[in-house]
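Researcher: Let's walk through a ligand-bound prediction step by step. First, I give you the protein sequence. Second, the SMILES string for nicotinamide-adenine-dinucleotide. Third, you return the three-dimensional complex as structure tokens. Ready?
Model: Ready.
Researcher: Here are steps one and two:
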Amino acid sequence: MSKISVKNPIVNMNGDEMARVIWNKIQNQMILPYVDLKLITFDLSIISRDKTNDFITKEAANEIKKQQVGVKCATITPDDKRVKEYSLKKKYPSPNGTIRNILKGTIFREPIIIEKIPKIVNHWNKPVVIARHAFGDIYRSQEISITKKGKLTLCFEDENNKKEQKLIHNFESKGVGLAYFNTFDSIYDFASSCFNFALIRKIPLFLSTKNTILQRYDEAFKEIFDDVYKGFKSKFEKNKLTYQHRLIDDMVACLMKWSGGFLWACKNYDGDVMSDLVAQGFGSLGLMSSVLQSPDGKILKTEAAHGTVTSHYRQHQKGLQTSTNPIASIFAWSRALKHRAKLDSNLKLERFALQLETICIETLNKGFMTKDLALMCGPQQKWVTTNEFFEIIKNKIEN
Ligand SMILES: NC(=O)c1ccc[n+]([C@@H]2O[C@H](COP(=O)([O-])OP(=O)(O)OC[C@H]3O[C@@H](n4cnc5c(N)ncnc54)[C@H](O)[C@@H]3O)[C@@H](O)[C@H]2O)c1
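Model: Step three, the predicted complex:
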């Protein structure tokens, strides 16, 4: 098999623990032997981030901006325990957050559906893709404890010190208060990312809010989406796609009734909650992919939604075999290759990426799978080790 040549590079971000072990195997056994591809590699392991005072994460994000395609391995977001474990200079922020702030995109989380693997919600036979507006709302809020009688107000002061003030509540006894915000720039970017994603993937788009209650705040989301839709309407109609706003409670009911096959644009908190609910409904973290896409749809960073799988790494460090599911990481690579193929009009590369995905799906459907998936199928289902699974896939690519 001669190697497929690729004109432009992909930014490759390596990570931590068991995810890193799998990552190197995918790169060296499934991609580079078949594709003549220049990888611009950044080591985003916690040790490397600590050495560079996290500068390497920003460098990687800026390189993705240039090359328009990035593929990222799971990385440790340090908590106090990790700071101690790795003797870190400080508690660095999540690399995904840093990259998202630089690329200003939206994260889309999508399950990989395999016929043989039972789902908790059985009739979800097409993916539900969740887009989370990861900016503002309660995540950038200010809270206040009310300890005595008094008035809580919300006040905006303009550049000329002119004030607009609203009474929130007249407290007669103890309580709590909260204020939060969002910006139109960020909501416009979110809306553009969602319409572009739906168009590229040819799936309908739904936005959920509670605009019956938040008649300015949530209504702003609806109005901005309506405004952005004006620019997409004819393309949507040409592709027989639809866009609809629905109340969040109605949308949750629809999620349970429908069989999937749509993109759901969620406000920040709703996306936080719903992406975990949907992931659980589809069954496994090892089958959940995640992409960060820029508002114009041109820049894509792909990854598996799961973490570094620490418990398996501890086994691996002791020289024991593990049964770690590499599917979501393989799909991170295949989706990055597909995006490179689309930007470069490289049909051979697109076919290779598609073939890789098909081989993975067929392998699972034939009953060769890692332990996490076997447990979902029942006690009679056999499972293979990480290394055995890689051997099976590699043999299939070659034959
Ligand atoms: N996108 C990211 O980079 C990302 C996301 C989440 C967590 N993390 C990091 O990962 C580390 C571990 O976090 P965690 O344990 O909460 O999350 P995790 O996703 O690594 O593991 C959660 C559970 O799911 C199982 N699991 C996950 N992926 C699996 C796979 N591919 N095959 C088999 N089983 C799998 C694990 O065994 C564990 O029981 C933390 O340091 C965290 O900061 C990174």
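Researcher: And what stands out?
Model: The mean pLDDT is 95. The two ends are 10 Å apart (CA to CA).
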